[in-house]
Specification:
Radius of gyration: 22 Å
Number of strands: 0
Structural class: mainly alpha
Largest sheet: none
Distance between the termini: 43 Å
Order of helices and strands: HHHHHHHHHHHHHHHHHHH
Number of helices: 19
Strand content: under 5%
Length: 382
């Protein structure tokens, strides 16, 4: 449980920070006038943050419900492992779907309840209003303990990885032997994340609202479907003579990763376009802009959102173990699968080195993109 909590903390922290960034500028002075008490914080700020916190909770629930990598390391039989074991025992895809149906309906219902709240909060951007609660001692104490918990959650795992990595005798040899898996993982994740962003932008900008809802619900269904079931259905559909070029190539895991996480791109970009001046869409039609020029126009306005969604999709795809295990072609292994295999052999020093390499690459990419785009917002929302 603690390991899963550690792994999902950045996701929930990101939604919390997103909630703070979406607060109206007028909220700070209004709260300051009322008095920066904990009661006001709970009634005003926390009420505004609740949809974002519930969204992070829902995504963590979905990921935890279907995950089998963490549970298998600790020899626990979870829902994800049970699906795989049933299939290995000869269960048909129909029987697996019936087994997974209660979990799919549960997550679909939870997200259906949270989405209207989340969408209604996604209307503006905070441009730097100071926090009135930083002036009170009680809130400073709460902020201190919150920061301490966050520090422990983030720093202890990194220190543990560094300690184990120092025990490795041949660090450069470990990295050199894993360059192929690292390259494969980054290639799969970059291509899948690029498709997710591109299709999400097409749906949000080019398609009319009924089609947006259709693709949104379709991608939501694929997102809440167990990854093992999605991969096995894809194997059954793609294992055909005419589709052999895709089935036996690296495009097979890219396709499944794209289908599994496309909901992130569609949801994120639909919400991002909802914060734009809606007259821009009408003017783009009046001006007679081509489809390519429309995409270029809105991609320029939403460049920071596109990068944020790309990074989020990239992280999800890089950490996925179920899809590469089931659908990767022979001889192709990702770094997440290699780490998963090492976990069962007890090679903790090798695992620590590989995890630190992945973390370093991701941090370098995020810092580079942040410097490339600059700080602040890319446009003024109305």
């Amino acid at each position: 449980m603690l390991v899963f909590a550690f792994s999902n903390l950045p996701l929930n922290l990101g939604f919390c920070l997103l909630g703070f960034s979406m607060m109206p500028d007028s909220l700070g002075p209004m709260v300051a006038l009322e008095g920066a008490s904990f009661y006001v914080f709970r009634k005003v700020f926390l009420s505004f943050l609740l949809p974002f916190l519930l969204t992070g909770f829902s995504l963590s629930l979905i990921l935890g419900l279907y995950d089998f990598s963490i549970a298998s390391v600790f020899a626990m039989n979870t829902f994800g492992l049970e699906l795989l074991s049933r299939y290995s025992a000869g269960a048909s895809l129909g029987e697996m779907f019936v087994l997974a149906l209660p979990a799919i309906l549960l997550t679909f219902g939870i997200l259906g309840l949270i989405y209207p709240l989340f969408k209604s909060s996604f209307t503006t951007v905070n441009k730097g209003t100071s926090n009135p609660f930083s002036q009170t001692k009680a809130m400073k104490i709460l902020a201190f303990f919150g920061g301490l918990i966050l520090f422990i959650y983030l720093v202890l795992p990194i220190l543990s990885l560094l300690w184990k990595a120092l025990e490795a005798r041949q660090v450069f040899s470990i990295i050199g032997n894993s360059l192929g898996e690292l390259g494969t993982s980054f290639l799969l994740s970059i291509l899948a994340a690029s498709l997710i962003v591109l299709v999400g932008l097409l749906v949000a900008v080019q398609m009319k609202r009924p089609w947006q809802k259709f693709f949104g619900l379709s991608s939501l269904f694929l997102f809440i479907m167990p990854a093992a079931l999605l991969a096995l259905v894809a194997i059954r559909l793609m294992n055909r003579p005419l589709l052999g070029l895709v089935y036996d190539s690296i495009w097979m895991p890219i396709l499944i990763l794209f289908l599994r996480y496309q909901f992130i791109g569609i949801l994120g970009l639909r919400l991002a376009t909802s914060t734009l001046d809606q007259e821009l869409f009408s003017l783009s039609h009046i001006w007679g802009l081509s489809s390519f020029n429309r995409l270029t126009l809105f991609a320029g306005l939403l460049k920071k959102e596109l990068v944020a969604i790309f990074v989020l999709a990239f992280v999800f795809c890089t950490g996925d173990t179920t899809v590469p295990i089931l659908v990767a072609p022979a001889g192709v292994q990702t770094i997440s699968v290699k780490i998963y295999n090492y976990l069962h052999y007890g090679a903790s020093d090798v695992i620590a080195v590989l995890c630190l390499v992945i973390l370093a690459f991701c941090l370098i990419a995020i810092i580079f993109l942040q410097k490339l785009l600059g700080g602040g917002t890319s446009y003024e929302r109305t």
